[in-house]
Amino acid sequence: MSETEFEAVIGLETHVQLNTKSKMFSWSGAGYQKASPNTLVDPVSMALPGTLPVVNKRAVESAIAIGLALNCEIAEVTKFDRKQYTYPDLMKGYQISQYDEPICIDGWIDLPTETPHRVGINRVHMEEDVARLIHIDSPTGGVMHSLLDINRAGVPLMEIVTEPDMRTPDQVEAYITTLQSIIRYLGVGTANMEEGSFRCDANISVRPAGSTELGEKVEVKNMNRVRAVREAVEHEIERQIAAIKRGERIVQETRGWMDGEKYTVTQRSKEDAHDYRYFPEPDIPPLHIGRNWVADIQSQMPELPLAKKQRFIGSWGLSDYDASLLVDSLSSAEYFEAVMKTVGGESESDQASFAKETANWLNGEMARLMHENDVPSIQETRVEPTALAVLVRKFQKREINNNSAKRVFGEMFDNGADPEEVIERLGLASVGDADELAPIIDEVLASNPSAVEDYRSGKTNAIRFLMGQVMKATRGRADAQSVMRLLGEAMDG
């Protein structure tokens, strides 16, 4: 069998840390990322005997919001369970999670792939995070000892489990980035894989193309970048296909992704639910979720990425590509809308033209300079939306040409400069008026008769040389379109 005769079946399990002020079942602060070790602790998160958990209401509301955004059914009654396992970062020997009555079930998410694809959401359930082990290396190699930081223990987590509906690494990457965007739009978490607040495990199997039976699945862990998830999925598909071709049996197991070496390694045999010996959490009664509560949360839901993208296309005439880039980040989408608030009284076509030019600057020069200067959010730049609107309008009216506009924008980005002040100070206003350009063009034509003759004899590229001479004479301030038109009229006349 060739590789094209196989089909991959992929499902993802994603843990999302919530940005609540306190932990899932206790009062300690949940912002552990920048805290000194073992400073955000309390008797509950330390698992001291006799302590009782209390459910964080805000975390439940965040879970409901996530479920609504993923088109899930919200349970009227949900409960917590104890998931039993032994590991050094789990002091009490069990994790409070949800097993058979999760808070959200039966949802879906549409992926913005070239071919539309819907991924089913099996469930969203609430649980608590575990503590963090810090391994200290020995001078002679290997781990000398490990330290335990309890700060992360008890931080609220949502686990989002998909159906095995993905088939390609492209779909996996699209799912992750779409889910990250939704979490950020909701404001319930940062969804940053690099800081550990968004962790993704992939369940992967392969089967003959056209088959409806599922193959033995392998879970892959230890992926801390979107790109790493994609690479791990690609590798595991290739590994399983190669093993089947050799006549080997795929074993259900958990494998770890070795990011530096770009391959997976066996970690342990895959546990089933009975291995965790789930039973209802005796210290937390079932939660009854009233429909009025859900409706109130629904009424406060923000506009989500897909809806915002469709509105940008419908209201402003943006292309699918431009709108997708803008809504990929909530801050960029909000910035674009702030620029568009300066529009008023123009025709629909003029508004659409302004929107397109604004998108070009945000997705082009703004994105380039943010990347070069390691600026993570457009809100952290010094370019005010109203200032960008001024520059865009001047550029559209050809009061400033492309090269000069980029120069002005560079100063706006570097020090928050006013575009009109920069244009005046540097003398960058375009020379575009016919009366102003006519004598310059006449002089250039008189000084370059051979180029004029070449143009008139059919060598039309000669006009570009002449345009360069005009730009040189105007110190780059001439409007290129006007120059090209006036040169052509002068030599064709």
Keywords:
15 helices, 9-stranded mixed sheet, 493 residues, 16 strands, elongated, 3-stranded antiparallel sheet, alpha+beta
Task: Summarize the structure in short.
The chain is an alpha+beta fold and 493 residues long. The protein is built from 15 helices and 16 strands.
Q: How would you portray this structure in words?
A:
The strands form four sheets. The chain has a nine-stranded mixed beta sheet with strand order 2-6-7-10-1-11-12-13-14. The protein has helices at 57-69, 169-186, 226-245, 291-299, 305-316, 320-327, 330-340, 348-372, 385-396, 402-415, 419-426, 434-447, 449-456, 462-473, 480-492, and strands at residues 6-17, 73-74, 77-78, 81-84, 94-97, 104-111, 117-128, 132-137, 143-149, 156-162, 198-208, 218-221, 253-258, 263-269, 279-280, 287-288. With 493 residues, it is of the alpha+beta class. Helices cover 40% and strands 19% of the residues. The longest helix has 25 residues, at 348-372.
